[in-house]
Specification:
The complex is a heterodimer of chains A (566) and B (207). Chain A has 12 helices and 19 strands. Chain A is of the alpha/beta class and 566 residues long. Chain A has 2 domains: 340 residues, FAD/NAD(P)-binding domain (3-Layer(bba) Sandwich); 193 residues, no CATH class. The longest helix of chain A has 20 residues. Chain B is an all-alpha fold and 207 residues long. Classes of the chains: A alpha/beta (566), B mainly alpha (207). The interface between A and B is large, with 62 and 59 residues. Bound molecules: flavin-adenine dinucleotide and iron/sulfur cluster.
Amino acid sequence: MSNYLFLVEDPLQQTYDAIVVGSGATGGWAAKQLAEAGLKVALLEAGRAVTPKEFTEHMPAYKLKYRDHSPEIVRTRPIQKQCYACMEYNYEWFVNDLENPYSTPAGKPFTWQRLRILGGRSMVWGRQSYRMSDNDLKAASRDGYGDDWPLSYADLAPYYDIVENYVGISGAAEGNEMLPDGKFLPPMKMSCGEIRLRERVKAKFGYTVTIGRTAILTQNHKGRLQCHYCGPCERGCSTFSYFSSPFTTVKDALASGNCTLITNAVVSQVNMDNAQNKASGVTYVDRLTRQVKEVRGKTVILCAQALESTRILLNSSTREYPSGLANSSGALGHYLMDHVVGGGASGRLADFKVLPDANEPARPNGIYIPRFRNTPTSGKHPRFIRGYGFQGGAGADFNFDAEGYGASFKKAVKEGVYSISMGAFGESLARWDNYCEIDRGLKDAWGIPALRISMTHGDNEHALMEDASATAAEMLEAAGAKDIKVQANVEMPGMAIHELGTARMGTDPKKSVLNPYNQAHDVKNLFVMDGASFVSSACQNPTLSMMAITVRACDHLIDRFHKTDV
Amino acid sequence: MKRREMIRASLFAGAAAAVRPPLSAAQSTAMPSELTPAQSGVDASKDLSAPGWKPLFLDEHQNETLIILSDLIIPATDTPGAKEALVNRYIDLVLAAESSEAQRSFLNSLGYLDGESIRRYRAAFRYLKREEQDDLLHALAYPRTASGWSGEADATPDLGHAHFEALKQRIATAYYNSQIGTKELGWDGAFAHGPYEGCTHPEGNHK
Ligand SMILES: Cc1cc2nc3c(=O)[nH]c(=O)nc-3n(C[C@H](O)[C@H](O)[C@H](O)COP(=O)(O)OP(=O)(O)OC[C@H]3O[C@@H](n4cnc5c(N)ncnc54)[C@H](O)[C@@H]3O)c2cc1C
Ligand code: SF4
């Protein structure tokens, strides 16, 4: 009898309806949707659980031993420290680079910035949230490059609604053809400099400058409190005002009573029932004990973020799928994308006489200029296809760069400078020769073969950034900025932290890994529901779209499941 | 290990535990739960003012030079300056943890200051009179401008200015991140100050 009870309670002795791998932005949604629909879900997360007790958003830097210059970051996180959000406060949320290696070919650097903790990167993300339009989803048929998505805006719109309603996105409706409006909470306010930029850019160029659309609450929403403008969200939020999965989707999934969370479960591969050509579950390594364990499930859903999900599939090859599971197309690992960044400009609005104020509410958001190149109204640009959007901001800052020294320097710091800046995020074209594969000579600390990532930005991305720099400078000039400094480099891939592709969706099983519902063409009960499925990158920050796509795929899965079709 | 040795070892372990200060609750949970010290609530703000402080990396001459330099760069005015903020101690702490490259580059800049000082006044920077120190810093503090009449840009890099800037950057960062520096900027110590109101000017009239 007691034996029997033990069996029922042991999470590894059950066969789940669905195994979700990864608890970040997308995995949280998959767990919530499936568990709330009545499926028995196991949510496997490589990292540890996270609690509000470890949030540090209200801790001043002088309480830190190294005031944000901790040698521990340099020692164990030489790659992660390239991410602006990895700091002395929170570096333990980011992976230890010594335990989580990957390789790159000579001359092709790639920075892979990631978290292994409940909630994944949703714990520190920048929260900018934009919809894609048919200009993005059907770009190929408009300019002839690449492939269209196998779904259209009309397919996605209802799911954007669901996600926005739940997450709470603050923003302003603009009626812009490139950036569909959503279900917004009240927008955050703009500064004087930003409003001037908005007015001048509209007058001179006819383009829209809008307040950033952000996954931060501007009013209380579904049991979470509105933002109190303390500023450093990437250190956690004790009022849960920005969207992170542990305190929203994952919490709901667990509350349903249908979801079992297994933390510290580093999934190494998907297991197959070869006779039936079906996934039977996953194998994982316990992160702390290094024991190897198995979980059985009727469906397997990978949400470990694009590159990690693809790594799991590449590491799951069988006799039937020698080059990676569900890879009869050969496309697995290919068409890796990450937005190109590095173009922009900054300057001073010298005629603004506003003093910087250390007690000003800190708005955790900036402004956004939706794409204006190669739009239906602008016509074709002679030098490049697709386009970019700008993020930026303007306001009075302390002038730590003031000249000189002594009492006059001290005074100049406080007199401040009214600065204005913008930086572009450009579309990254889907190219076969940007890809990841398994590096046979490299394993992580759990003995799991690691990735070799091979990606460069091409001519089109370079042309986008060149145009972005020049255009940013013109816009700042129109706003009356002085001392304009143009930033005209192309940063290494990975720097936008928007990895997409490597298991693209499509209608043709010969050219794509997933069908339009994120279901593997080859293995019907295997799904990849994160950014790996993206066909093109657009130029908008992608996470809102990823989540909408996850919810859509879950709807399909639930439907199929009830018809016992998977 | 033999039994007798084991007993000895355990006795030693006990003795060591007795003299070591007890771990705070925060510290003792830091390791197994994989939190940063900040996440486990460690407040290190008093570390540098501990009595009996000794530099970890700088020698006495370098430390004294840094104190004097920081006091010149950010002096006490109606508010405390870099010296009161113990900027030298913080810089020493960070240097001790940095790469040998970063350490060398800092010492180079400090050494350059002494070199210039000896060249002009035949004494190391810390032994100069206040006006001499000021004159020397003034010569380094502003970027050299190309000679106006020749029309040619000065091609040699402005080494003195670069060293000055490197030192100033360290000192300013240390100062404005200290508790004193945060007060200097006017922070009232509260983390929330109501909603962000943005621009309240009428259309087209922003200043
Ligand atoms: C600093 C920063 C700023 C960003 N800003 C924005 C922004 O403004 N707007 C935007 O749209 N996007 C932004 N992003 C990107 C955004 O965070 C990601 O697009 C999003 O989180 C991806 O969701 P995901 O579910 O695919 O992966 P993640 O959220 O990264 O979650 C993946 C989860 O899977 C787990 N996992 C990985 N491998 C395994 C394994 N083998 N076994 C078990 N679990 C595993 C991880 O531990 C993690 O918890 C930002 C990212 C960062 C880091
Ligand atoms: S700024 Fe707002 S969302 Fe960010 S941590 Fe503070 S309260 Fe939370």
